[in-house]
Specification:
It is a single chain. Helix content is 0%, strand content 42%. The chain is elongated, with a radius of gyration of 24 Å. Strands 2, 4, 5, 7, 8 and 9 form a 6-stranded mixed sheet that branches. A 3-stranded antiparallel sheet has the order 1-3-6, with no helix packed on it. The relative contact order is 0.17. It is mostly beta strands.
């Protein structure tokens, strides 16, 4: 019997390692199919069978952005016994950078902790870097962070608080 632990469902890792368990000591091969388990095998990863837990090497070739289904397979060391096959595990590789937009803030604000807002195509952390002056060419003097939800985000926790002056921001 061979099992495959479900990989992270969405990741930017194009060379994930896989883990699971196996009852035999023969090599475990993880076949990575494009799309569903019926899709073409586009990469494989192998692990030494230990009769217990196993961890694969990175797949070859590395994966591109897309949806995949992995299945772990282990041939039996006993002639005539069937090959073990895990339950399929589907995951997505997304190597594209998220799209983040920052809505323009009013030119004049009366607070040291301004509120920033915008949109993004991923439900992930958004970091707004705040720079002294009219450009974002120097090092940030403050940051504000938030978690995007439903494509929108708002951050009002700039730290440290900003003294009077001109600032620029980018998300």
């Amino acid at each position: 019997k061979v099992t495959l632990n479900a990989p992270v469902s969405r990741s930017n890792n194009a060379a994930p390692v896989f883990t699971g368990t196996a009852t035999d000591t023969t090599v475990v091969t993880v076949q990575i199919h494009t799309g569903t388990a019926k899709g073409a095998v586009v990469a494989t990863a192998t692990a030494t069978g230990t009769g217990g837990s196993w961890t694969s090497a990175a797949p070859s070739p590395v994966l591109t952005s897309g949806q995949y289904t992995a299945i772990a397979i282990q041939k039996s060391s006993i002639t005539g016994n069937p090959t073990g096959e895990s339950t399929p595990a589907t995951f997505t590789v997304d190597t594209k950078a998220p799209e983040v937009k920052l809505t323009a803030t009013p030119a004049w604000l009366n607070t040291g902790t301004p509120t920033f807002a915008g949109t993004t195509n991923e439900a992930s952390e958004v970091v707004v870097e705040i720079y002294a002056g009219a450009t974002t060419q120097s090092s940030p003097v403050a940051k504000a962070t938030t978690k995007a939800a439903g494509g929108n985000w708002t951050a009002s926790n700039a730290s440290p608080s900003l003294p009077d002056g001109q600032y620029s921001a980018k998300a």
